[in-house]
Amino acid sequence: MKTARSSWIARHRMKCLLGVMMALIIADGLVTEFLVSNRLGREGNPFLEPLVGQSTFLIIKAAGALLAAFILWDIHRRQPNLAFVASICFVVVYGGIVCWNLAVVFLAQSNL
What we know:
This protein has three helices and no strands.
């Protein structure tokens, strides 16, 4: 049986993880905007590709990040381990995407 302290720690850990996930999704949007506007890259999501460069692009990215966090938090209330593992997977994937995008930015800058 979980103690109140371990339950608090699990909730806090999940909130932090969801915050990192949201920050990475928004960072992906910002770096993608930069890459596309400077003709250094393109959006990989075919549904979002026509929106890059418009004001709605970052709003949709932020809303999607918030929606994903709410869904994962709801899952966490019923199945905390599943939500925690899924959140870690999203953080790893988006962390990789942001690192890749930043590598493209820095490599392009060094070639100028």
